[in-house]
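WARN retry 2 of 3 for item q-0093 after timeout on previous attempt; input resubmitted unchanged.
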Amino acid sequence: MELGLVPLGTGNDLATGLALPDDPAAAARVCRTGRVRELDLIVSNHGDVVVNASHAGLGAAAAERSEGLKERLGPLAYPVGALIAGVREAAWDLRITVDGHVVHDGSTLMVGVANAPSIGGGTRLVPPALPDDGQLDVIVVTAIGPAARLAFGAALRDAAHLDRDDVVHVRGREVTIAGEPVSHDLDGEVTEHRSSCTYTVVPGAWRMVVPA
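OK item q-0093 returned
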């Protein structure tokens, strides 16, 4: 069985990654006339199921701060929340393991585990991410100081952040984020603080109707 999607949320990042139209009528037409595409899922050892992306650290803190702003600001709520979190939040001491290999151990601004390119209503956190390649795209950001955070934010805006020395981008099938307790943002839903969380990709787990 395949699913159709009519985007009615605030961010609609999965829809954007699949090139689905924002207009409900146009999206409904895609449901009738589009092609079927098999997509991956991300599952966690806490029982979560993620279709788009999970991120921990600053990104989750930004989502928490933006929650109360959505009714007034709509899609602008997340960037405003990110600005507030970027000023007020400290770093987290985390170890990131991908397919059994430690890719980072120490102070961390944020970690993203992505099945598609964008989060937060269009922020292209991992531009190369594909939802059907059987891989998780993992990004680790260590831009800790105020100047580094500003520079990272500017690079992120221009989708040039993957070239920075304080950004690690790797791919794998299983990712563990462990260390200082930190909240995780799962497709826009923020969890409680977790001292460890493991994500695993399930290739081709579901089917979505996308533009032909």
